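To illustrate the input format used throughout this study, we show a single complete record. The first block contains the structure-token representation of the backbone; no residue identities are included at this stage. The design step must infer an amino acid for every position from geometry alone.
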């Protein structure tokens, strides 16, 4: 079709153009939406906006249309005729109809748009009220709310306009902590859909275990390893010092312990679902760990990860020497590796997601476009962009706007 053949577009109604908001309520069944618009079609009205929601089998259907002009309509020529016809059609289906006259389209949304995702286990009415009030306190307006998931947690998303993303986050984070729910605030726009690289910590994030403790159990030095770990947490040792001190305690173990530890590793609930779904969506997924390549390489193969990096236990003549080889993956190293993975993946850093639980992950979480503290220490929860405090790793999908129904549908049609 040439440019001269393209019909002129209908102008968006101005503030002075009469419009009608047609609202239909009642028990849902097939054909209601088609029936309403078939009824309206007789009056040659233009559709300006449509919104429909079904909750527990009850439909709420809203259509914003231009008001009919006296010259229009095959079966009637006035707004009064349209009203009578719509009410008659609704009554024939045991539905309720409400028609409100007005002018123009919906009022423009305020500048500054965000997605506020709330996770509750359960999500109480008190929490929903407090979150909504907190959004209002920032000057934000809730434009839409819809449910992302009903299990293993209840996840709902608020589309908010009129408030800056950072302002929303600063107000909602302490409110969520007090309420015992998880709240994530991300800027609206294409960037949210374009996040194409997710990088996770391993110990107590992708897996339930601390790998060094699994090795220590075989060496009979669990208490000593725990003491060194506690010293590091108190700030008496930095990560590299504590790593060397703990690995030294493993010296003399037979290398066969590596396979034994691999078998003992337990994935976090939801880990497979998270990775599988991200891969289906075209995301690239990686792990960085202060643990050991002897375990992360196996996880990379098992889960089909794109990237994996960790420390490497030195093995000589079939025995662990009590040393590590190569560069140490510490707090700064994790952030560096996130940047390296992003470069290899061809993904801007702003389109990355990082997930971790410890202070060792903070640089990585802060460097990512979205940093998620997963069942993390308080200092990490406070510093990360958002926190998830339920034991299901796949809840991170909801923060990306992916619904439970979409995950299950993808699994069914695999």
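Output of the design step:
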């Amino acid at each position: 079709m040439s440019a001269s053949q393209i019909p002129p577009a209908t102008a968006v109604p101005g503030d002075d153009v009469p419009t009608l908001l047609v609202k239909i309520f009642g028990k849902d069944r097939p054909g209601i939406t088609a029936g309403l618009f078939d009824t309206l079609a007789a009056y040659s009205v233009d559709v300006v906006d449509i919104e429909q929601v079904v909750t527990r089998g009850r439909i709420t259907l809203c259509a914003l249309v231009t008001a009919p002009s006296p010259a229009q309509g095959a079966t009637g020529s006035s707004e009064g005729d349209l009203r009578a016809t719509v009410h008659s059609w609704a009554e024939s289906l045991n539905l309720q109809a409400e028609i409100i006259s007005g002018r123009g389209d919906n009022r423009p949304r305020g500048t500054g748009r965000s997605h506020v995702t709330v996770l509750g286990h359960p999500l109480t009415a008190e929490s929903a009220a407090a979150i909504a009030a907190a959004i209002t306190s920032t000057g934000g307006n809730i434009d839409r709310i819809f449910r992302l998931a009903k299990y293993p947690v209840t996840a709902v998303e608020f589309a908010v306009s009129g408030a800056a993303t950072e302002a929303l986050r600063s107000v909602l984070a302490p409110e969520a902590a007090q309420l015992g729910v998880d709240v994530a605030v991300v800027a609206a726009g294409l960037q949210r859909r374009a996040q194409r690289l997710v990088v996770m910590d391993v110990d107590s994030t992708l897996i339930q275990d601390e790998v060094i403790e699994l090795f220590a159990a075989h060496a009979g030095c669990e208490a000593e390893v725990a003491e060194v770990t506690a010293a590091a947490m108190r700030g008496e040792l930095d990560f590299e010092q504590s790593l060397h001190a703990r690995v030294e305690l493993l010296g003399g173990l037979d290398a066969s312990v590596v396979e034994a530890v691999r078998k003992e590793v337990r994935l976090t609930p939801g880990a497979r679902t998270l990775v599988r779904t991200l891969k289906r969506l075209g995301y690239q997924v990686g792990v960085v760990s202060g643990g050991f390549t002897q375990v992360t390489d196996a996880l990379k193969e098992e889960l089909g990860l794109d990237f994996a990096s960790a420390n490497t236990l030195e093995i000589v003549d079939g025995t662990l020497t009590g040393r590590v080889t190569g560069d140490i993956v510490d707090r700064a190293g994790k952030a560096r590796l996130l940047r390296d993975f992003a470069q290899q993946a061809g993904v801007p850093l702003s389109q990355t997601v990082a997930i971790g639980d410890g202070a060792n992950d903070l640089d990585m979480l802060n460097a990512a476009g979205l940093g998620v503290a997963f069942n993390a220490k308080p200092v990490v929860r406070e510093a990360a962009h958002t926190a998830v405090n339920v034991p299901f790793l796949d809840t991170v999908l909801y923060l990306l706007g992916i619904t439970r129904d979409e995950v299950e549908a993808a699994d069914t049609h695999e």
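Structural context for interpreting the output: DSSP finds 16 helices and 15 strands in the chain. The two ends are 39 Å apart (CA to CA).
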